[in-house]
Amino acid sequence: MSSFLRKVIVRPLAFAKSCYNFTLNNAIHTTSVSSIKLSLSLDAEPTKAKKRIDPAVLALRENRKKKRLEREIRRLERFGRKFKPIDELEPERAILKEADVRKRVLPEKSKSKLDEEYFLKKEWANYINEQHRNQMEQLDRALKSQQEALKELKKDNSILYNSAIQLDTKLIPYMRDGPVQTPPKINYEPPEGDYFDTTYLYDRR
Question: What's the domain range around 111?
Answer without folding.
Answer: 106-168
